[in-house]
Amino acid sequence: MKYSSIIIFTLGIAISGYGQTENQIKMDNTQTERFERGWEKLNEIDGEAGVKVIESLKDISPDLGKYTIEYPFGDVYSRKILDNRTKEIAVVAALTAMGNARPQLKVHINAALNVGVTEEELSEIMILMSVYAGFPSALNGTSALKEVMEERKTEK
User: Fold this and answer.
1) Cα Rg for the chain, rounded, in angstroms?
2) What pLDDT sits at residue 155?
């Protein structure tokens, strides 16, 4: 899938052949396919929330944005053994258990909803995490879920 230079330049990332400015990353041809595969997967799963994460990095660490597109999404999320729904259930559980990644948890709660996980299932994940990560993590995860659901209602 081809991406317009407008989208790529909005992210502050330049693919080889588009030139390079101060805040842009010049990637070689071997990275371009990986980047494009990752960009497609990021949009498929996270949608606008994923773009916002990458956009937030362009002024401070464009390399981290590039690596986020390439490794998690271009390499790991693009694997075929687990479907996107299962991957997001695992990520939401892990981030909830960590207890220190609320912004990322909210992005992945949205992603889970985008790929077919229900609000009821997400709530059940939080209850399950009370056993393995403790009540504070489960309560914080549930609070993040509530915020995401409220935000999604106001966006409609």
Assistant:
1) 17
2) 86
3-state secondary structure the chain: CCCCHHHHHHCCCEECCCCCCCCCCEECHHHHHHHHHHHHHHHHHCCHHHHHHHHHHCCCCHHHHHHHHHHHHHHHCCCCCCCHHHHHHHHHHHHHHHCCCHHHHHHHHHHHHHCCCCHHHHHHHHHHHHHHCCHHHHHHHHHHHHHHHHHHHHHC
3-state secondary structure of 115: coil
Residue ranges in the chain whose pLDDT is less than 70 = 1-31
Tell me the residue type at 155.
E
Q: What is the pLDDT of residues 21-62, one digit of tens each?
A: 444 544 444 467 999 999 999 999 999 889 999 999 999 999
Kindly state the tokens that stand for 109: 């709660």
**Exposed / middle / buried, residue 105 (Cβ in 10 Å: 0-12, 13-18, 19+):** buried
In the chain, the amino acid numbered 78 is: S
Are the C-beta atoms of 145 and 111 separated by less than 8 Å? no
Supply 106's token pair: 């909210």
Q: What is the DSSP letter of 100?
A: S
